[in-house]
Write a structure and sequence with these properties.
By secondary structure, the chain is of the alpha+beta class. It is globular. Helix content is 27%, strand content 31%. It folds into 2 domains: 3-133, Nuclear Transport Factor 2, Chain: A (Roll), CATH 3.10.450.50; 153-268, Nuclear Transport Factor 2, Chain: A.
Length: 285
């Protein structure tokens, strides 16, 4: 029995029968710390992390995982012993939501975003978006490297409004005449971590033109969530990429009223016949 199997073999009992000391410890932790502990437990096997998930009310939006805490445990048990890695790089805590940007290794290296929704200090809902790690992009940047420090907490609302406008005007509306409202015109003004795009507006233009000429434009049809903390804002959208139905998770760093850095993951949404739960990829409250 590997450590992940041991971790979840008694999940229901462990989650519903936490000791008094464990509950006290959980009350002292922030939701951010609890979310990090849950993701880190994929690698460490820390059984106490189970206590941060509501065993009676846990809705799963990863369509490859069955609903509830049992589905989560079943998915982890499929990993070969010692194979899983989970290194949390960036975090956002916004109200009831915590988002993590993580460097994973399970069934191969991946970059991923996880979003957890909390009620009364316990996780009740989970979304994620994963993409295989590729070689550095044309500017030599990876899907994970770059700035990590959270700053400008007093500008959270303004930065979220800026990204909301950017998604609506540029990504969904396609009005590139207004791009200067959001991104500076020098290549050094916009650091890009997308696997196939170089820095700056010039790199973005080259990539978008190539997709359009190939008959496979990137299309944002709907935005489902925008959360942020200080200079970091995460947008969750739905659309088409390479002529496939996908989820777009875009993380932006904002500085002095402009978007200056971007990370993303793009994941194909499988047909409903392949879903292991009925909760859908989105469904944010």
């Amino acid at each position: 029995m590997n450590k992940l199997t041991r971790l979840f073999a008694t999940t229901a009992v462990a989650a519903s029968a936490l000791s008094v000391s464990a509950v006290a410890n959980a009350e002292e932790m922030t939701n951010r710390e609890k979310a990090i502990a849950v993701i880190s437990s994929i690698e460490t096997g820390d059984q106490s992390a189970i206590g941060y998930i509501n065993p009676e009310n846990y809705t799963q939006h990863n369509l490859g995982v069955a609903d509830g805490l049992a589905g989560f445990g079943e998915a982890l048990q499929q990993l070969p012993e010692g194979s899983a890695k989970a290194n949390v790089i960036r975090t956002i805590q916004d109200g009831e939501y915590v988002a993590l940007h993580t460097e994973y290794n399970f069934f191969g290296p991946k970059a991923g975003f996880d979003i957890f929704r909390f009620e009364d200090g316990l996780i009740v809902e989970h979304w994620d978006n994963l993409q295989e790690v590729a070689k550095p992009n044309p500017s030599g940047r990876t899907q994970i490297d770059g700035a990590t420090e959270i700053t400008d907490l007093d500008k959270t609302d303004a930065n979220k409004a800026l990204v909301t406008d950017f998604v609506k005007t540029i990504l969904m509306g396609g009005d590139m005449s207004k791009i200067g409202m959001f991104i500076g015109d020098k290549d050094s003004d916009y650091i890009q971590h997308n696997t196939g795009v170089a820095d700056g507006l010039s790199g973005l233009g080259v990539a978008m033109k190539a997709l359009a000429e190939a008959g496979m434009p990137m299309v944002y049809d709907a935005n489902h969530l925008i959360i942020g903390e200080g200079n970091f804002v995460l947008s969750v959208s739905e659309g088409k990429f390479m002529n496939q139905h996908v989820a777009f998770y875009d993380l932006f760093r904002v500085d002095n009223g402009k978007i200056v850095e971007h990370w993303d993951t793009i994941e194909v949404i499988p047909p409903k016949s392949e879903w292991k739960n009925d909760n859908g990829k989105f469904g944010f409250q």
